[in-house]
């Protein structure tokens, strides 16, 4: 039997919590607030085109408002050496505000819309946009954070089976916590050295430049992988293949290269029966929305062609996890 390729999409949905240490709320409003409008469009297109996707969502966003948020905070909070990385001083100062500012922090209605849309799954992006590789934080603090994320999701009626680590800061020492709390899969990083450790503000200029170059030229490889080669124990690693970097006006002359980089990776996977895992943040489509939307449509159209020609299938992380973990391996999650 010929093995069919699989096309996986995961989205990191984080609102202001994901960029709070980088941008002011005014900067976020100017640059990224359009993601609230782009998500319903994405859901409509995904359902119409039968695109399966996993939405990794910051746990704080499940709250209705600031008052409810205070009832779900974890006991232990991350003790980063760089205190600006923690949202809790920001929360204590009440800077999240009300009205429009509140909509930049909480999104229970959008989460419900995601959950109700065919082929979509709600996942976790930790409770507080937790950074697993930053100095000062501990595995116990991570456990409390993830437990809080799962707790609020369950209270709201969502079953969490997968995780995406914020800024792709994967810490192998924390995999035991995932297993302990019932997480069946995670999005790991591409194996190439420029992605292996995830992202942080301390990344070198060279590293950032190579990642940018990889958007347009094949520096790291296609990064497709065999589903049959995924280790059959939980939690399973479903590595990213490529980041859908947004349109750049300064580099618009390179748009054809950016598109070819992704489409060629998808084709490579479809022809060889491999997994191609594309990811982005909804806000990546918010600036220059017309250019970014048309670019995404070309990707989805290409997937449909690969589906017809090679039988490539769209699956979310949860579905792929089920496909690669035979029933006997599920016992590992329960009994170790």
Describe the structure.
This protein has one domain (6-335): Glycoside hydrolase/deacetylase (TIM Barrel, Alpha-Beta Barrel), CATH 3.20.20.370. It is 41% helix and 10% strand. It is built from 13 helices and 9 strands. The chain starts with 5 loop residues before the first strand and ends with a helix.
Q: Rough shape?
A: globular
Structural domain tally: 1
Label the CATH architecture: Alpha-Beta Barrel
Please tally the helical runs, counting DSSP H or I stretches of 4 or more residues: 13
Q: CA-to-CA gap between the ends? A: 33 Å
Helix/strand/pairing category: alpha/beta
Radius of gyration: 19 Å
Order of helices and strands: EHHEHHHHEHEHEHEEHEHEHH
CATH superfamily: Glycoside hydrolase/deacetylase
Approximate helicity band: 40-55%
